[in-house]
Design goal:
- The protein is built from three helices and two strands, in the order αβααβ.
- The radius of gyration is 26 Å and the shape is rod-shaped.
- Helices cover about 45% and strands about 10% of the residues.
- It has about 100 residues and is mostly helical.
- The protein has a two-stranded antiparallel sheet with strand order 1-2.
- The protein has two domains: about 35 residues; about 55 residues, Membrane-bound Lytic Murein Transglycosylase D, Chain A, CATH 3.10.350.
């Protein structure tokens, strides 16, 4: 036998206000969540770079970006795209560098 607690709404105005605010909050979270994901998705094109002696990921990132983003984030993106750990690149390596419309090509 299942017992259900029966609740009685004492103040109908407060109950309706709570329901409406809850629905508004859920709607806002949903809308802004989708907006954030669409803003972060920039269309990237990739440029393949042949690493030469003395090149670093830092230098390559500075060459292809105009300061629109934090340089550390760009270095992190380049490392993730190419599977580089610890920023170790060797002369002769080919790496992909993402370039956006605002980047220097």
């Amino acid at each position: 036998m299942i017992l259900f607690n029966k609740y009685k709404v004492v103040n109908m105005f407060r109950f309706k206000t709570f329901i409406i605010l809850t629905l508004v909050l859920i709607s806002l979270v949903t809308v802004f969540n989708f907006d954030v994901f669409s803003i972060n998705k920039e269309s990237h094109q990739y440029v393949e770079i042949l690493v030469t002696k003395g090149d670093t990921i830092w230098d390559i990132a500075q060459e292809y970006y105009n300061g629109s983003k934090d340089i550390r984030r760009i270095i992190h993106d380049i490392s993730n795209i190419n599977g580089i750990e610890g920023a170790m690149i060797q002369p002769g390596d080919k790496i992909l560098v993402p370039v956006t419309d605002k980047s220097k090509k």
